[in-house]
Amino acid sequence: MKIAKTLGQFIIEKQADFPYAKGELSRLLRDIGIAAKIVNREVNKAGLADILGEAGTTNIQGEGQKKLDVYANEQFISALKHGGVCCIVASEENDEYIPIESDVSKDAKYIVAMDPLDGSSNIDVNVAVGTIFSIYRRKSTTGKASIDDVLQNGTEQVAAGYVIYGSSTMLVYTTGKGVNGFTLDPSIGEFCLSHPDMRIPKDGTIYSINEGYYSHFPDGVKKYIKYCQVEDQKTNRPYTSRYIGSMVADIHRNLIKGGIFIYPVTAGAPNGKLRLVYECNPMAFIVEQAGGLASNGYRRILGLDVTELHQRSAIFIGSENMVKKAEEMMACFSPQVTKKSFEGVVELQ
Fold first, then answer.
1. Whole-angstrom Cα distance, residue 72 to residue 163?
2. Residues in the chain, pLDDT under 70
3. How far is 116 from 132, CA to CA, in rounded Å?
4. Which of 170, 178, 197, 264 is the least crowded, having the fewest Cβ atoms under 10 Å away?
5. What pLDDT sits at residue 135?
6. Phi, psi torsion values for 235, nearest 5 degrees
7. Which helix (H) or strand (E) holds 225?
8. ∠ at Cα 275 (270, 281), nearest 5°?
9. What are the two backbone dihedrals, phi and then psi, of residue 55, each rounded to the nearest 5 degrees?
10. Residue 182, Cβ neighbours under 10 Å: how many?
11. Burial level of 26, CB count in 10 A (0-12/13-18/19+)?
């Protein structure tokens, strides 16, 4: 019987890829794995514990927080504070970044940006949710780390990953040398390598977008949706429409099966809705490392300048040929999407 390789063992084996890290990046990834196990435990018993429903608070985006949002946020921040290798945590759930100034973290060189519970609006109805994380090395060499250390382009990420809490719990991550997936074995409490060297197919047959907003999309997005629906045997169309409403779950499925996930600009969100730092950049890094593409419709996501902590962006992400086709449609039919493009359009509430 083959013995499964655990996340900890895999990280130690790969530590030689990062000689400058001196084991710190490995410890940081293990800390994230531990926090993920704790959150997984609560997600799995959410219906039995008093942890479903609204927390009665809102985050910086003005979105109502679920109790599990708050719980997951606290668990990841706590794990990173006590790990000793992280100097700043930036979370989608907090207005400002959180400096870590404890004695154990005084020489810490890493910054973690995270969405602690992506898709949390689905938690009350038992649909898969996830955690997204992104890791950077601080740029400054003296004094306390600052906001300038946080606002780095996606190309500067040293690692990124996500955890999906579904029928099984998986942690998928990259350090810029391919993508590997680990499934949590509840019998031993360890993440075990289950999906080595993950690769997204160049072509897919799934498109994921909230078509309820169809009339409020740019023309380029409308044309691409119609393209997906037209019958054509050469390209295996019509494609299948699958939209869960949890970015992690939708992209995880498409990463394995092939497909595209689109969250475009709309009248109510002319800059896009998803967060560049916490969602778009880490997922773009993962998908690119698996052989796919990630774009805002015109430019590579990882090439976008990061100027704000809670900056938003549109995203077209997934199989290479599907993203390229969507970009063609945007270039032809929506060459310049601005707020003016949506004049006279009322966004659904």
1. 12
2. 1-2, 18-22, 46-66, 337-349
3. 6
4. 197
5. 96
6. -105, 15
7. helix 219-229
8. 120
9. -90, -15
10. 28
11. buried
